[in-house]
Amino acid sequence: MQRKAAASILVLLFFHLFTRAQFIETFDDGDFTANPRWSGDTNDFTVNASHQLQSNSLVPSSNYYLSTPNTLAQAVEWNFFLRLDFNPSSANYVDVYLIASLEDLMASGNTGYFLRIGNTDDELALYRKDDGNSGAKIIDGTDGVLNQSSNLLKIRITRNVDNLWTLYRDVSGTGNSFVSEGSVTDATYTSSAYFGVLIKQSTASFFQKHFIDDIEIKDFVPDLLPPAIQTVSVLNAAMLDVLFSEVVDKMSGEDISNYVVDQNIGRPAKALQDVLNPSLIHLEFTSNFTNANTYMLTVNGVKDNSGNTLTNQAVTFNYFTPQLYDIVIDEIMADPSPQVGLPNSEWIELRNRSSHAINLGGWRLGDMSNVSSAFGDFLLQPDSSVLVSATAAAPDLRMFGTVISVGNFPSLDNSGDIIFIKSGEDRTIHAVAYSDNWYGNALKKGGGWTLEMIDVNNPCSGITNWKASVDSRGGTPGKINSVNAVNADVTSPHLLRAFAADNRTINLVFDEPLDSFNAVQKGNYNIGNGVAIMRVAAPPPLFNTIVIYLNTVIDTGKIYTVTTAGITDCSGNVVRDVNQAKFGLAQSSDSFDVVINEVLFNPKPAGADYVELYNRSEKIVDLSQIYVATRNRSNAITTIEKLTAEQLLFFPGDFIVITENVPAVKSEYITLNPGAFLQVQTMPSLPDDKGTVIILNSQGEILDEVNYSEKWHSPLVTNAEGASLERIDYEGASVQSNFHTAAASAGYGTPGFRNSQYRLNDQLQGEITISPEIFSPDNDGLEDFLTINYKLPSPGFVANITIFDATGRPVRYLRRNALSGVSGYYRWDGLDDKNRQLPQGIYIIYTEVFNTAGKKKQFKNTVVLARKY
């Protein structure tokens, strides 16, 4: 008897375990006829290559089903994946029978519960199927959830011991973002025989577009655990994302009183549940986090959908966003050929000079014409470096260090370029405007060597903080730079120039990058003349240009002065002495507004050609609209070169020196005005014997032209190498008589300031006057020639000028039948007709003028020619 009782208990226990067995169907065996066995319209279904149950009926306006045994009915959880590649309708939907009393799901007497996916309202709804009717809706889901051409769904339905049904859906299909569609208590049917799928379809447009997979029916284990914080992500200075371990209740998740951040940040102004992931809450605060600071977020009162409440969970988070110069470009391989010891590929190296690890994911490298694709995720540790290259170059570079390969890597110009890196938030972190002059070595400039930053803690100093690598391989990818040293910046920045972009916008250009914070404080600028500043900006990537927006309109033709104070570079050096610049609205230039004032066409071996211009007008001229040119053998204007691509103002009475090599010119001559030099990309050829220099405006009109010759030099100059020709009078014509060799006392050249041979035609009253009364033609820059000024009553007079010595002998026929204007001048250099020096003494200037009407007049003037011995 005891054996029978024990056996009965074992049978009942086995039966209970069998009937409560978990049901799982993944179709991984490629079949639905066994393990478990499905029955019904088996010809209307198939298992596809992705191991999913797929509809296969090609009959329009049809209903078909599959069912399989299942006895789990109470305290159960149902899970499955469903994909519908169509927008459901009243004639196209799916019924998933959770509980069915009959194998034939379409039988009128079938009872149980089913989930309808689709129908007219494009919803998910739970129905109870009673004997003889089509079903009663007991959970009415959200309308429009399935109103799209393709629907991915992960479904979860629970029934607890108290017969409370809850329907969840995840429209991402992943099962990570369940949202409740509602709950209902219903205990009508407490047993089950089958689980199944019933499909209703209409036209061929819906054939073979139903997919079901990952079916799981198991005991329902009630959720007794509260949600927990998994991660806190900092989005920006005032926003956090809080990810919980499960879906949270919308009302409690969006209650701002459930969240608080320490250090006076307080509660958020907004708390919003993510639309796609209800486990995620977005918090937005009114106070900003301080960069590189650690905070604590405390969460209390947030519930899950089962009512479990989170109590006082505290999580720390660090707010850090890369600032300007946290990451720097510290090595550049712009010209890898000819190879020295590194791969024949362009690359740059980035170094993290901050104290935080920085994820470079989403960052980009660019120049002025191209920006790379976004970097992949890469955590760059403090005081560490990484190479960035094109994808094709990465394999060869990886033997030297870690490489981030990017698409659309910008081409690095050999001669120079502006390159920059931007963070994922599109914020410029560092920029370098490099030049091949930075190598400081003619051999290494030719290729195969990198440019290396000397001191990464001095990222803004340009040429003074870069030089060619001294490593035998040609560079140091992945290593500390070979030129690494302390090279602190102690030099104040200089205000180079200012110009008006329009009548309300002023640009200031500095010689190095500025601290972009204090550079935009409008109190650091003063213009005067009643000009009011509205705001100031410091645009990237170099931060060496300041844009001032005005409240006041400036006047055309008026010159203004801007003064700065309190501005610093990125090393903290304050702008001091060079803190003022003129500006105004530029005007178009006409003939003779700008003249060629000095020409050096035969420089010394270490020197360079130059042309000095003078603005003799009352206009502000934009040098970016001025061109220098020459003539070819056919006398056509050729080799036209723009002076500068950047707007550079040329003010009345100012000089500008154009040359291909500013340092070479400055090393050969006294430069009293070093700011008056402009290095151009290319100069027209200036032959040593003779040539032509032309200045053009942007319309191609000639402003001035000089057809120089070595014969224009003073006969007293035996070697004209390194000696310039200077204009004598700004108002005079561009001819030989108005040019003279620069004085020896001035070093045979005066680039950037007033000519040593300059003489102003004062237009003195009287018929014939001379200046000076004593002159000394010894090329010392002082009284080197005599000026004979004339003023005649009308045009058309012809002049003969003869020079006599004190004994009355003619020693120079200075002019013969020279057609003269109403006023003008002639010059005598103290030489006789054979270009020989005359002795010192008293000389008579005899001038005879006459015209065709027979009117004539003679003049005598006395001058002393002095010699220095």
Short description:
Helices cover 4% and strands 39% of the residues. With 869 residues, the chain is mainly β.
Which features would summarize this protein structure in a list?
869 residues; disordered N terminus; mainly beta
| SS class | mainly beta
The first-to-last residue Cα distance is 153 Å
Number of strands: 60
Spans of at least 5 consecutive residues with low confidence? 1-19, 761-766
Coarse shape: elongated
Portion in beta strands: 35-45%
**Tally of helical segments:** 5
Mean pLDDT: 91
The biggest beta sheet reads: 8 strands, antiparallel
Radius of gyration: 45 Å
Range of helix content: under 10%
Structure description:
The chain has 869 residues and is mainly beta. Helix content is 4%, strand content 39%. The chain is built from 5 helices and 60 strands. Strands 1, 3, 4, 6, 11, 12, 13 and 15 form an 8-stranded antiparallel beta sheet that branches. Strands 2-5-14-7-8-9-10 form a 7-stranded antiparallel beta sheet, with no helix packed on it. A 6-stranded mixed beta sheet has the order 29-28-24-23-32-33, with no helix packed on it. A hairpin with a 2-residue loop joins strand 16 and strand 17 (239-244). The N and C termini lie far apart (153 Å).
